[in-house]
Amino acid sequence: MRESDFNVGKFFAFLFVLILFLFMLSPLFEEGDGAKIDKNLSDIKNRVSYFHSLKSVKEIERILSDNNDFSKYREITDSAKTVIFGESKDLENGTANLVTSIVLDYRGFDTLGELIVLFISILGLTIILSTLSFAKFEEPSFLQITGVKFVTPFMILVGIYIFLHGHLSPGGGFPAGAIIATATLFSLIGCKFNYRVSNLKFIESNAGFFVILLATLGLYFTGSFFGNYLPTGIVGKLYSSSLILIIYSLVGLKVGAELSVGIKTLYNGEKDDDR
Amino acid sequence: MMIDNRTLYIYSFIIFLIGIYGAITNRNLIKILVSLSIIETALNIFLVSTGYINGSNPPILHSGMKLISPNSINISDPLPHALVLTAIVIGVGTTAIGIGLTIKLYNHYKTLNVNRMGDKDEL
After folding, report:
1. Can you give the residue range of the structural domain that contains A61?
2. Do the bridges between strand B66-68 and strand A82-84 make them parallel or antiparallel, or are there none, so unpaired?
3. How far apart are alpha carbons B114 and A170 in whole angstroms?
4. Which residue among A55, A66, A84, B23 is buried most deeply as judged by most CB within 10 Å?
5. Domain of residue B94, CATH code
């Protein structure tokens, strides 16, 4: 294609994007009966996650079993339940980070599916790249080798800290896994440290197995998949919400090992010496 | 400074459209992948900003904080955050697959330009 055609195409692409922008702006400023974003949604009390925040989903079950109308009971006045940091104990789940309590307790299936998606994508990556061999990287310099050997243990330590504190602070298993995988990438490029892929796959498969085992035990003890059957403790302590702590640690190990396998595959193909 | 939800929506629209423009006009496969990642980021910003409430705190309990029903919950909505966490991980998976396919195509055609990929007839 010639260069002038390309410029015409760029002009039409810009026009298309502009029209799309105006189209997307219209529901924000419309006042009619058409599509518009409800102003009441800016109040958390009008959302379902209000109950997630108060860690009392069983309240909804009680309301729904009494009379099947959820919409009347948005304003619950009889259950003045208070969650205080460092004092409340034996809640539904004892995580201080409300996002973690949603990710691993109320929407545990979501996280399980997420893990499966990540597993399948890394599997597909290894299948796609199974017959290729890549150009060699440059030999690392002395400075790279020394710096990477100094930094990498600290990166792994930060990753472990983040997945152990997933129920107290921002972060959790998935960011921690990404940090651990970055550490393996550093050590691959910087000092040519040769990970054995079989070890990583061992960690990954066992972590995934134990996540599913612990979730299935919830089916036996509490009657629901991903049910919390261990004591939840006091909100804000490190050893609170034991099941979520264990599962998030396993998720961190699994994601870290899985992404490391992906990075190793992208680095030198599946042509590994120990396969 | 108070930021309106609507402002955040408009910012995310702009980032989304930058990604769309890049994906339409570029021929290089790597640049198209980067554009798709930009679109993903814009969608994540949009989803998170739907959960934002003016002047609210992050949904994490810290020392001295109380959640009292039903009077005042001054936190942003934690549910979109959880959904975006899922979306980010799936984005990583799709990006990894895309990079793998790009490497495969480059080894096959010896070019990254989409327009020149069908030129060799004997393939």
Report:
1. 44-81
2. antiparallel
3. 41
4. A55
5. 1.10.287.3510
* Residue of B5, B67, B97, B114 to mutate, testing the A interface (most A Cβ within 10 Å of its Cβ): B67
Backbone angles phi, psi at A169, to 5 degrees: -135, 170
Supply the pTM of this predicted model.
0.83
Q: Which B residues in the span 9-38 are in contact with A, Cβ-Cβ below 8 Å?
A: 9-10, 13-14, 16-17, 20-21, 24-25
Question: CA dist B43 to A119, B49, B75, Å?
Answer: 23, 10, 22
User: Does A269 contact B at CB distance below 8 Å?
Assistant: no
- Residue identified by tokens 């050893």 is A239
Per-residue pLDDT of chain B (123 residues; tens, 9 = 90+): 667 778 888 999 999 999 999 999 988 999 999 999 999 999 999 999 888 877 778 888 887 777 765 556 678 888 899 999 999 989 989 998 999 899 888 888 888 888 888 776 544
A125 forms bridges with which residues in the sheet? none
Contact (CB, 8 A) for B9 and B49 = yes
Q: Domain for residue B95, yes or no?
A: yes
Domain that holds residue B49: 5-55+78-109
Residues A111 and A214 in one domain: yes
Angle ∠(B33,B34,B36) on CA atoms, nearest 5 = 65
